[in-house]
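Supplementary Methods, section 5.1.

A reviewer requested that the exact input to the structure prediction be made available. We therefore reproduce it here, unchanged from the version used in the analyses.
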Amino acid sequence: MGSMAITVRGRNIEITPALKDHVAKRIGKITKYFDSANMGEITAILTVNKGRHIVEVTVPINGILLRGEEATTDMYASIDLVIDKLERQIEKYKTKLSRNLKNGTFKAEPVPAAALAGDDEDSNIIVKTKRFAVKPMAVDEAVMQMNLINHDFFVFTNAETEEVNVVYRRKDGQYGLIEPEF
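The structure derived from this sequence is encoded token-by-token as follows.
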């Protein structure tokens, strides 16, 4: 794990060496699936808010983001749960991810996936702006990526039409596709 870049940040909590070591040790459970040369910097954000101990982990692998978030009343339990969640997602999407990621990304037995809880926002004021590369992909790959990050929508460039599209999860559990019409 020496060459693996892990950033551990805290909000309303001091990141002790023991906490940082626990995060690094547990992240090793998911990084074992991938070749470290294909991994970007892993970020773990530990937050304490109203007695809730929230852990959010982001793992960039060859242009795909694995992301998970968990909250309990104990920081160590939250860390363990978020890593378990990421492992389950990797197992669930293993076949699709190994197909979409370039050869050599996975070690021995391949793996894919992640989860992210959405931000709670009660007003129409924009409190955060995100910028990201919109890479060309097939609609089914966009749906998979949306599920990997556990969002309700995903913006991408449709590889067939070369236009920006949005896939989204409908209330009935099915998926929708938004295509621009000029």
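Residues 11 and 46 are 6 Å apart (CA to CA). These observations are discussed further in the main text.
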